[in-house]
Specification:
The complex is a heterodimer of chains A (109) and B (113). Chain A has no helices and 11 strands. Chain A is an all-beta fold and 109 residues long. In chain A, strand 6 and strand 7 form a beta hairpin. With 113 residues, chain B is mainly β. In chain B, 0% of the residues lie in helices and 47% in strands. In chain B, strands 2, 4, 5, 8, 9 and 10 form a 6-stranded mixed sheet that branches. In chain B, strands 1-3-7-6 form a 4-stranded antiparallel sheet, with no helix packed on it. The termini of chain B are far apart. The chains are: A mainly beta (109), B mainly beta (113). Chains A and B meet through strand 5, strand 9 and strand 10 of A and strand 4, strand 5 and strand 9 of B.
Chain lengths: 109, 113
């Protein structure tokens, strides 16, 4: 079976840095995605990792360790608009994308 | 089109009725996915289409669910004899290639009463 674990909720302060962790056990691995989903809206693509290491894109960075089945999403200089759910998803060898239940991030002033 | 278009955006139906949900992917995107998202939960994979290949139906929860796609165009998800447990947001996504990022539509919010 497929299993993806993320914390359910996190709270952080505006301007700070937050790290959202994701661990996975899947039957195949073709890459790991992070998506952002604001309440009532569709998920939007943030990042994709297929090789070990850190991918940086502006205020957002994503890290992958395939041997540990572990990834994190790092958000810097938090803004109020970053309050959203962050979904970790693994693309298995069977063509589809398995999602975790998401981490609801609340940014406070 | 510019994005993934889904219709209707909201659907309220009586238990036992059939519903049909539509997804119009981004032009040229060969991969199309349907997901279900219950309130406060993650996305649940339903079905995947890739070009003219046989679809991956492994996520469909029961035989009341079916989906069709002609070539690389519009897809329809049909739920027969709807049950209250089918109430959820049904999201469609398309991708240019297998390992590419997915673009999601805004979803259809289905409420079965």
């Amino acid at each position: 079976g497929q299993n993806i674990d993320q914390p359910t909720e996190m709270t952080a302060t505006e301007g700070a840095i937050v790290q959202i962790n994701c661990t996975y056990q899947t039957s195949g691995f073709n890459g790991l995605f992070w998506y952002q989903q604001h309440a009532g809206e569709a998920p939007t693509f943030l990042s994709y990792n297929v090789l070990d290491g850190l991918e940086e894109k502006g205020r957002f960075s994503s890290f992958l360790s395939r041997s540990k089945g572990y990834s994190y999403l790092l958000l810097k200089e938090l803004q109020m608009k970053d309050s959203a759910s962050y979904l970790c998803a693994v693309q298995t060898g069977a063509n589809n994308l398995f999602f975790g239940t998401g981490t609801r991030l609340t940014v406070i002033p | 089109g510019a994005g993934v278009s889904q219709s209707p955006s909201n659907k309220v139906t009586e238990k036992g009725k059939d519903v049909e949900l539509r997804c119009d992917p981004i032009s040229g995107h060969t991969a199309l996915y349907w997901y279900r998202q219950r309130l406060g939960q993650g996305l649940e994979f339903l079905i995947y289409f890739q070009g003219n290949s046989a679809p991956d139906k492994s996520g469909l929860p029961s035989d009341r669910f079916s989906a069709e796609r002609t070539g690389e165009s519009v897809s329809t998800l049909t739920i027969q004899r709807t049950q209250q447990e089918d109430s959820a947001v049904y999201l469609c996504a398309s991708s240019l290639r297998r390992n590419g990022d997915y673009t999601f539509g805004s979803g259809t919010r289905l409420t079965v009463v």
